[in-house]
Specification:
CATH topology of the largest domain in chain A: Rossmann fold
Number of strands of chain A: 15
Structural class of chain B: alpha+beta
CATH topology of the largest domain in chain B: Alpha-Beta Plaits
Oligomer: heterodimer
CATH class of the largest domain in chain B: Alpha Beta
Shape of chain B: elongated
Strand order of the largest sheet of chain A: 3-2-4-5-7-6-12
Helix content of chain A: 25-40%
CATH class of the largest domain in chain A: Alpha Beta
Strand content of chain A: 15-25%
Order of helices and strands of chain B: EHEEHE
CATH architecture of the largest domain in chain A: 3-Layer(aba) Sandwich
Radius of gyration of chain B: 17 Å
Chain lengths: ~400, ~100
């Protein structure tokens, strides 16, 4: 049976990867991801995980090794953060284009400069268009579960795409939380052995990642886009199977008190928890407040998002990154796009908040709610703003 | 996908292998690169000493050794880089401008 243990979330992630029996881990340590790979290297050194741990000289090499090992048919894992993700980004795009089912944890942290080791989503958004399946988790239990599901999704022959699990740096990675572990038997009953759809094999030579001349590049990209869009049905299927088996369900768009809500906050990752508390307080104040927690980022869950926002009059988007020089943060820009057909009926206010680990307090979430309520009353969205900025 | 491909412009995205992979070995021979050439190497065999430097240095593998021991250039693949002429010990390979 499952056992509940108090453990640092990073170590919980490493233990999940161990339970998935990864064959190759190639990683370079970077704050706040370090404990994940440190613990994995211990597990390998202690003989608890029968895997090749490759201590590479950079993240660029980490993802390159991952591509090579995944191409041979080995279950492959890595983790990184911020500058590491930026350094490996060249190969991140190649992994999805070559359809290599690697699983990577990103311990989300702001990009320099100024130099910052603290949490936000600027690294995640810098890699938004890399073609990986990407989802966010909110707490330690979700972080543990997410990785076991990630391998199953990535390696499904209807998918064969890499999966990136976004986990807020420090806020989650360095927190000690109670996590309900699955036993090896339980994981084995859920996650089948990795059977590559196409693998490097001297007996049957293949060329992976050949040149895409102008006459063929567009076709390769179209195939990749269709694969990512089609992956959604498998993601939902795997999440449901996990829930049916172990009792913990993932949804692409998680909601809280949304049924009769008129105005909702929208968060991604760990901010879902304080935002729930804010909604509880708003409800006590008699407000019809709700919360949308966007879990699945790529492929974007368009239908589920439209359904969740169907009865809303206003949406306060909490953006944890900036898209410089345009209309606000990347999440709000995306959501305005998805809601374009309904643009007259939903007021979207965008708030840049929680950059580089700065706390967003319950009363600030409430402030975002009330400002959005005011905007709904005025029938006009406000310009995006930085929450808590001193001016 | 079935090789050789007659016309690349007829391949649909649905026809592609996973990730655009090529699942047959040796398909580069179907891609003739000779028309990239603006200068063609020509061998004057009367002075050739059969050192085979051209054969060894050709980056395209477009030079082969004939039965009589002389080398030969395959103009279907020679891109006209001129390395054979530069390396030739007997200075018997000349780069001649291609006529359009």
């Amino acid at each position: 049976m499952s056992k509940r243990v108090g453990i640092e979330v990073s170590l919980g992630v490493s233990e999940a990867v161990k339970l998935c029996n990864a064959d190759v881990v190639a990683a370079y340590p970077i704050t706040p991801q370090t404990h994940i790979v440190e613990h994995l290297s211990e597990l390998v050194a202690n003989g608890e995980l029968d895997a090749e741990f490759v201590p590479v000289e950079s993240e660029h090499s980490a993802m390159s090794v991952c591509c090579g090992s995944s191409a041979t048919g080995a279950r492959t894992y890595t983790a990184t953060s911020s500058q590491g993700l930026a350094l490996m980004s060249e190969i991140v795009y190649i992994a999805s284009s070559m359809r290599l089912p690697i699983v990577m944890t990103v311990a989300d942290r702001s990009l320099s400069g100024p130099i910052s080791i603290w949490n936000d989503h600027t690294d995640a958004m810098s890699i938004r268009d890399c073609g990986w399946i990407q989802y966010f988790v909110e707490n330690g239990q979700e972080a543990f579960d997410a990785h076991i599901m990630a391998f199953k999704i990535a390696e499904d022959h209807r998918v064969i795409l890499p999966v990136m699990v976004h986990l807020d740096g420090f806020i989650l990675t360095h927190m000690i939380e109670p996590i309900e572990f699955l036993s090896q038997e339980e994981v084995n009953s859920f996650l089948p052995e990795f059977k590559p759809a196409l693998a490097l094999n001297p007996d049957k030579p293949v060329t992976m990642g050949p040149v895409g001349v102008p006459e063929i590049y567009t076709e390769v990209k179209k195939a990749q886009e269709v694969a990512l869009k089609n992956s959604k049905s498998v993601i939902l299927e795997v999440w449901k199977e996990f829930g049916d088996k172990f009792g913990r369900y993932f949804n692409p768009v998680e909601t809280y008190k949304i049924d009769d809500a008129e105005i909702a906050l929208l968060t991604m990752g760990s901010f879902g928890e304080p935002a729930m508390l804010a909604v509880d307080e708003l409800r006590k104040e008699g407000e019809k407040a709700g919360l949308i927690k966007l879990r699945l980022w790529r492929p974007f869950p368009i239908e589920e998002f439209l359904e969740a926002t169907n009865n809303l009059k206003g949406l306060a988007v909490v953006d944890r990154a900036i898209t410089y020089g345009t209309t606000g943060g990347p999440v709000a820009i995306e959501i305005r796009n998805v809601l374009y057909e309904k643009k007259d009926s939903i007021i979207i206010n965008d708030f840049i908040a929680g950059l580089a680990g700065r706390d967003v307090r319950i009363n600030q979430f409430k402030q975002m709610y009330y400002e959005t309520k005011e905007a709904v009353k005025n029938g006009k969205a406000n310009e995006y703003k930085f929450i808590g900025v001193r001016e | 996908m079935k090789w050789p491909i007659k016309n690349i412009n007829e391949i649909k995205w649905q026809d592609l292998e996973l990730g655009g992979a090529i699942t047959e070995p040796g398909t580069s021979k179907y891609y003739k690169t000779g028309d990239w050439r603006s200068f063609r190497p020509e061998i004057d065999r009367s002075g050739c000493i059969k050192c085979y430097f051209c054969y060894v240095f050709c980056p395209e593998g477009a030079i082969t050794i004939r039965e009589d021991g002389f080398t030969e250039i395959n103009y279907d693949y020679c891109k006209g880089c001129g390395i054979c002429a530069k390396e030739c010990k007997g200075k018997v390979i000349k780069m001649v401008e291609e006529e359009v």
